[in-house]
Amino acid sequence: MLQLNKSLHKWLSLLVGLQLIIWLVTGLYFNLMDHKKGSGNANFRPVAHAASELNAPFIPLKSLDFAPAQQIKLLWVLGHPYYQITHHLGAHSYQAKQVTLLDAYSGQEAAINETLARTIALKSFKGAVNIISANLLQPPIAELPKHENPLWQVKLSDAENTNVYIDSNSGRVIAHINDDRRLRDLMFTLHFMDYFGTGGFNHWLIIVFAIATLLLSMTGITWLIERFNAGQLSFAFKSKKQRIKVIELAQQQTHELELKTGISLFDGLAAAGIVLPSNCGGGGTCGLCKVRCNENTQMTDADKANLSNSKLEQGYRLACQHNTAEVTEIEVRSRTFNKPKNKP
Fold first, then answer.
1. pTM
2. Domain of life of the organism in this record (predicted)?
3. Which residue of 97, 136, 173, 294 has the fewest CB atoms within a 10 Å radius of its CB?
4. Kind and range of the H or E element at 101?
């Protein structure tokens, strides 16, 4: 069980650590970015829709036939009046709604067509630019995932590869999306972990990450308690020395070392200049830092998980799982010896 706790803690550390790095990088970007450029509005200009004078009297609403409505308002689009009749209205402007446009002069049903969309797009852009294409997109829309209504996408030929998005229900410019805005949106995606394009941060993935962070804390506390109970944690003012005889079998050398107590044998040997092999940094999962102790040395779960029964019976233990105070003599086969630092 403790071995599972350690493995889980390490994988959770990797997961949480990567996201923390992402938060650090994206947070730095948001602090240093040019917010006007990042919004995509560096070349945006408002479009004047209202007319200075009427060309004809409006058709009275009571004379028009239309389905029941939640909202009716007069809408100007490039100087022409329309009745915007909303049959179903969401709580937010980006939510799905059902709209009918009626020409306020003739009473005929109308629509924001491609010609209007192209004209609005050009009027909303500062400077001379050509149109590459204009398409009416149905949701979901990749660059504006929150919007649930059809939008006109007008692609412009500027250096920033701007796409102008226009509401097909009102003719209003929803956004200019260019390369600067795309970079900002990418950073928002990474920062809010919105990898599935929900357009917000209240989603299941961030909830799972919060649970993973909680588990990381819990497994870390459990591991800390385990190390404390095993005597592998100590305070500097309480530290003592333990004399240990270290025999290197491969080179037939013997070292007499004085190591601090209250730390693992793996860390104590490393501090003395003897680095044992390890792929897990002393976490008790790789099984490489084995040393031979007295066969009566207590076995840990990590010892049992990584060493064979015959090795255990011969007294082999994992150096990272045992305190320096537990042994007085060990044998190692490692060839990673450095010159011992405290040989008396």
1. 0.67
2. Bacteria
3. 294
4. strand 98-103
